[in-house]
Structure formats: structure tokens, C-alpha cells
Amino acid sequence: MAAFEILLRQVGVFVILILVGYGASVSKLVSEAGFASIASVVINLLLPLFMLTMLSSPSLRLQIGELALMFAAIALHYLLLFGGIRVIARLMGWTGLFRDLNLVLLTSASAGFMGVPLASVLLGATGTFYIALFASLDVFLQWSYKARILRAYQPEAMAASPQPFLKRVLTPQIVCVVVGITLGLMRVDLSGNIVWDTLKSVGDMTKWMGMLYVGSVLADMRLEHLRPALFVLLLRMLLYPILFCGLFSLIPGISSDLLLTLAIITSLPPMVSIPVMIHSMGIDDQYTSQCLLLTTAASLFSMPAVIWVVMHAFA
């Protein structure tokens, strides 16, 4: 019941902000250039601060064996997703940009925005750290490997002058992730410091501003995007998490908290910042934004269902 209430509050706020962004776009209250500026602020300022302040928790109690198992689970999760989506794309006839947009979107997870609030109530500091760690790896993949995939579809003027590898990888997001994890592992407690608390408050604006942007692109919604999004919902957010957690439940001595952590990670909807990144690269982001809207709203029901099945069937 607690999981449902947390998701209800989180998704409810998201839906309201999406509607506000949609209304502002339809009414021309905010111009397209204004929403582009919002996207730039989210990418280059708010998201890095969010990751930095989220990853530092001095009350962690980590066990080396459990941490190694979590890394193995995350690695297998990505391996299955990247391989499985490529196979599905071939079977479904997805090609070109549409195939790669699905690959980028569906291998991401809204771990920072939705997973961490849920874990903080159900799992405490250690479970929250594991999901925050997963979120940091997701951000790294987003701005390295996934960004490289999508650069093939950038406008010719941008593709003609590629950035050096280090400049692409050492983004504000990645730097803040590394610093945040370091502070967390060293148990450096900066809470109560007025500067740190202010940075945390600014970083918390990421999910709100990101959802406003997502709402702005819904003014041009196309119904042909609905069918693949529904397919994603059934396979990626319901069947796959249950099968994945069922596999790990076969490991002797695995804790129920770790299984719950994996259930949350694998059933999360796609990452909110993916459409923002796609837009910042000059690529059509309507499909990803609309798919994100549907899956985020549906996660209100799909995530509690997955968690219930995992905890009753495998834990």
C-alpha cells in the first residue's frame, strides 16, 4: 500500500505538470524557444545538481558481496535490454531513427525521479544508494554510448564538427555523479550546510522542469505512436521485471530487500531527461515524449503490480 501511495503522489504531480506544459504550449503562453531554454537549463544545471546531492548519504551500510551482486544484476539487466530490444526491433520491423530512439529510451529508467523516492521509504539508505548508483550509471550511458548512437541523426551542420570524446563524456552530469558517489562512500555529511541545502533544493527542480518540457511537445501528438508504446508497457514494464527477479530469486540466500530493489529498477518507466537530450541534439522527440507520458502514467499501476508479484512469489 505504501508503494502505491508514493507512486500516486509522484505520478500525480508529474501528470499535472505535463498538462501545464501542454497548456502553455497550445496557448502560446511559452514559445518554442522558451521551452528550448528550459531544456538547456535542465540538461546543463538542474540534472547535475540533482545527481550530486542525491548520491551523498553518510548513513550507508554496504556489504561487499551484496554490492558485487548488484553490479552483476545491473550488468545483466543492460545486456538483456540492449540485446532484447535489438531482436524485437528486427521482428517488429523497426529501422533507422525509430529503432534507435526505442533503444535509447527503453534501456533507460526514471531511477532518480521515481526510483529513489520509492526506495527511500521502502528500503532505507542502502537500498536508496543502490538505486541512485543505478541512476548514475544510466546517466553515464545516456551521455556517452546513447548520445553517440543518436549523433548519426543530428543535422549535418552539427555532425560535421564532432566534439572530442573526453568533452562528450566529461559532461556536468557525469562529473557530478562521480563527486556524489565519492561523497556518499566517504560518508561526508553536508546536510545542514546552507549552501549544500540550497544546491539540493535547486537540483530537486529537475523533475518539475523536465515534465513541463515533456508536456510542451504533446501539442503535436500523433496517434500512430500509441501501439508501440503499449507494446513497450506490456513487455518492458510488466513481463520482463517479473522474469528478471524470478531468475535472481534462484540465487541462494538473496535477501528480500535486494529483490525489491531489483523489482523497482527493472519496472521503472523510461528516464525523464531522454526526450530533453534528444531535443537538445536537434532530433524529433515527439515519439519519445509521448511514449514517456504513457509509460510514466501507467507505472502508477504497473510498478505496484510487479512489486506485489515479486514479493509474494519470490521473496
Give an overview of the whole structure.
This protein is mainly α. Helix 1 runs antiparallel to helix 15, helix 5 packs antiparallel against helix 6 and helix 13 packs antiparallel against helix 15. The two termini are 17 Å apart.
Annotation field: number of helices: 15
Name the assembly state: single chain
The amount of helix comes to: over 70%
Strand content: under 5%
Are there runs of 5+ residues with pLDDT below 50, and where? none
Instruction: Label the overall shape.
Output: globular
Give me the Rg, rounded: 19 Å
> Gap between N and C termini, in Å?
17 Å
Order of helices and strands: HHHHHHHHHHHHHHH
The average pLDDT score comes to: 81
Structural category is mainly alpha
Strand count, sense and closure of the main sheet? none
How many DSSP-defined strands? 0
Question: Layout of SSEs?
Answer:
Layout: H1 2-26, H2 32-54, H3 64-92, H4 96-106, H5 111-122, H6 124-150, H7 156-159, H8 165-169, H9 172-185, H10 194-203, H11 206-216, H12 226-248, H13 256-267, H14 273-280, H15 286-313
Short key terms for the protein model shown above:
single chain; 315 residues; mainly alpha; 77% helix; globular
